[in-house]
Design a protein that fits this description.
- With 405 residues, this protein is mainly beta.
- The protein has six helices and 29 strands.
- The radius of gyration is 28 Å and the shape is elongated.
- The two termini are 46 Å apart.
Length: 405
């Protein structure tokens, strides 16, 4: 009888040790029994500094809490010396500057948050040359991309420059060659092409106009013209509200007229995809003839389109779908790992999702990446994108945010 009582005492005592305390020290465990996190509680809530380790004993996070909420500086690391990221919270909300570091401790990105939303400048860096080179800068306001967006090569040459207004494409967009000379000029208003779009080539120091067109409310409207590098005219056509008004005129490299029936896929509409940076690789240049003869432009996968691919019912329906289906992996939850996974995929012309890939994951918990992929692959068919009035294949990216409540 005494043996039973003693056993009951030890069983009860072990349960007390494992229960979350109202106040004082507490250690969390991995499923295998290894210590995962340790810190203190105050009035039943996490308080002060908590350290977390992987199952093999490597320090992976240093967290700070106030009244159970992340507060102050947070560090992700691999051991005591290798810091991978540094961030700040104010009572559970993302705040201030977040930094990520490479294996040598050099800053590779700086992002600013305000009230848990992206706000201010975001910068990304490359160290290939041994020096810090900014390769991308973008601005946010209230969680939306707002202001200038610039990209550079890893040698510091400007590659593109664009503007957003409340997450919509706006104003002048420019792209540049490897010498920093302008290649394309396009304009947007309320996320739709509006105004004159131009494309140039360079012969030495000479800037040569090779294409010009006009848009009104996202549709081609007015004269479309294209020229050869020697400035002889190649194509001319008139559009109204996105529709071609008459058979286009075209000329070969000798100046001889080309019969309109060679425009099997209306090359004028698809001769250049300005927004995907393929200005110098047009069908016209590859085929040495005006037009898209023998080429189906809808097989191209577009980064940007006149009308984006859309989840059935829109963004609100997609967010509701994600909330219903996304599961927080138990192992990641036990380790208190949080973050955002970004999945990029192709929306086919029939709306099916293909080629889903992780473009940014969460260090230390691949289960989150697998779960995000599972949800994407299970999504219903999208409403496909449109470019120049035709249904096309396009890229889409969705963020999956994992946050402990």
């Amino acid at each position: 009888m005494r043996f039973v009582s003693l056993f009951s005492f030890f069983l009860f005592f072990s349960v007390i040790l494992r229960a979350q305390p109202e106040n004082g020290y507490y250690a969390e465990k991995h499923p295998g029994g290894e210590k995962s996190c340790e810190g203190n509680y105050k009035k039943g809530k996490k308080e002060g500094t908590w350290n977390c380790w992987s199952a093999n004993g490597v320090l992976i996070r240093k967290e700070n809490y106030r009244q159970g909420e992340l507060h102050g500086r947070q560090i992700e690391c691999y051991g005591e010396k290798f810091i991978t990221s540094s961030s700040y919270y104010t009572m559970g909300l993302r705040d201030s500057v977040w930094k990520r570091f490479d294996e040598k401790g050099r800053v590779i990105s700086e992002r600013t948050y305000r009230n848990d939303l992206p706000g201010g400048g975001w910068d990304y860096y490359d160290w290939t040359s041994g020096q810090q080179i900014r390769v991308k800068r973008e601005f946010y306001r209230d969680g939306l991309r707002d202001g200038q967006f610039i990209e550079w090569t890893n040698t510091g040459v400007r590659k593109s420059e664009s503007w957003y207004k409340k997450d919509l494409r706006d104003s002048l967009w420019l792209t540049f060659d490897n010498s920093g000379r302008v290649l394309t000029e396009s304009r947007y208003r309320d996320d739709l092409p509006n105004g004159v779009w131009r494309t140039w080539q360079w012969s030495g120091q000479k800037k040569i106009l090779v294409q010009s067109e006009n848009y009104v409310d996202g549709k081609r409207d007015g004269l479309f013209e294209a020229w050869n590098p020697d400035s002889t005219k190649k194509v001319s056509a008139k559009f109204k509200a996105g529709k071609i008004q008459a058979a286009p005129e075209a000329w070969d490299y000798t100046g001889a007229p080309v019969a309109p029936d060679q425009f099997e896929y209306c090359a004028i509409v698809y001769s250049t995809d300005l927004r995907s940076y393929y200005m110098n690789d047009t069908v016209l240049a590859r085929k040495h003839m005006p037009g898209c003869y023998g080429y189906d432009p809808t097989e191209q996968v577009f980064d940007y389109t006149d009308t984006r691919a859309e989840f059935p019912g829109g963004i609100d329906s997609m967010n509701a779908y994600i909330r219903r289906n996304l599961r927080y992996p138990d192992l990641c939850k036990e380790q208190a790992i949080q973050g955002t996974v970004y999945i990029k995929f192709i929306v086919e012309k029939n709306g099916m999702i293909t080629d889903a890939k992780i473009v940014r994951g969460i260090r230390g918990c691949p289960q989150m990446e697998k779960e995000s992929l599972r949800v994407v692959k299970g999504m219903p068919r999208f409403k496909p994108a449109r470019q120049g009035g035709r249904i096309v294949r396009s890229y889409s990216t969705i963020p999956f945010r994992f946050k402990l409540s």
